[in-house]
Design brief:
Shape of chain A: elongated
CATH topology of the largest domain in chain A: Tetracycline Repressor, domain 2
Number of helices of chain A: 11
Helix content of chain A: over 70%
CATH architecture of the largest domain in chain A: Orthogonal Bundle
Largest interface: A-B, 38 and 38 residues
Strand content of chain A: under 5%
CATH class of the largest domain in chain A: Mainly Alpha
Distance between the termini of chain A: 63 Å
Structural class of chain A: mainly alpha
Oligomer: homodimer
Chain lengths: ~200, ~200
């Protein structure tokens, strides 16, 4: 209560937002309350500006969602492209893809978190889900090739291996928060995913 | 539209629900629309009965949530108790716990799905989150003991290993749907988690 009058006085002098900062705060809010549960009114209140000031930057809530999930998806697809160019066996390309995906996830944590919670109620969400499925297909194909080349266990369906692999990667959004001086989490995930948690003698 | 009049005519003759069937349909609805996004009115509409008919079975929406998440948590804690009683090394108890947890997840899929989406806005949710943390602690302690016994890789923080392990297990809610004649999914998860996806020569 006591801060409200001050907020009102300072609003005029508040430096303007750019699209990037509107987007970041929108994504934070979507992750807290759900995309459906957040209105442009809520976002305006959080930013301390009017709704029409938001519409100056972006035409709709759906467009904010599209920008956000594309930020995550474009990162993942860029890594998939780089992985294709890795010289060597499919298993090496797969390991590159896993490490790179962890990197994207850590760098773009709020965006990937939003992406992974998308349910498919709107056109933007359905299109994001379609791109996710395309990414899953790329992973499953790499796993299948690595099986053929004798590097990945052949006793599990490649699609299931791919899903469990990325189930582990994606679970990072639930608990991982980057801290300085951390062990490289991509390294940890790759070790456990490829070689398991059991110690071999 | 065309089915509405019929639904209205048959309501009277509809066999009564018991608490169990009300709970199952509530959980389905919570998973579809989110707990916050589902009202008792929505549930009444889905069941084709009045709100007061629901209150005959259960005092509140929060109580439905409590029953649902406890169904998941009680299953997981029962497996943790059984795991403790497994004769042998910590790594064997851990493997028992992983396989058993997959079993609970598959058997009680909608309940575990709801549990894993709980965010902590109400007393019931906060209490469920506290029990989840307690379960995570049990897993991390088992991992730590197995490291001390030389069976689990010592180069990763036991809490991180525990989280990645259950990140993989919990990811099943996103895609796994039990089908008759399936390979034992608990077996697949245990193989990949403990021994990795890489084939050893």
């Amino acid at each position: 209560m006591s801060t409200a009058p001050q907020a009102r006085t300072t609003r005029r002098g508040r430096p303007g937002y750019d699209l990037e900062s509107v987007l970041r705060i929108a994504v934070k809010l979507f992750n807290e309350r759900g995309y459906d549960g957040t209105s442009m009114e809520d976002l305006a209140r959080r930013l301390g500006i009017t709704k029409s000031a938001i519409y100056h930057h972006v035409p709709s809530k759906q467009e904010l969602l599209r920008l956000a999930v594309d930020r995550a998806l474009d990162g993942l697809f860029a890594v998939a492209e780089e992985a294709k160019a890795v010289d060597g066996r499919a298993v090496e390309q797969l390991e590159f893809l896993v490490r790179g995906s962890v990197g994207v996830l850590v760098e773009r944590l709020p965006f990937v978190t939003l992406l992974l919670r998308v349910r498919g109620n709107t056109k933007v969400e359905r299109s994001a889900l379609a791109r996710r499925r395309e990414f899953d297909r790329i992973v499953a194909e790499l796993v299948a090739r690595a099986e053929t080349e004798g590097d990945i266990r052949p006793d599990v369906d490649p699609a299931v291996t791919a899903r469990l692999l990325f189930g582990m990667v994606n679970s990072l959004i639930e608990w991982y928060r980057p801290r300085k001086g951390d062990t490289d989490i991509a390294d940890v995930v790759a070790k456990i995913a490829f070689d398991g948690i059991r110690l071999r003698s």
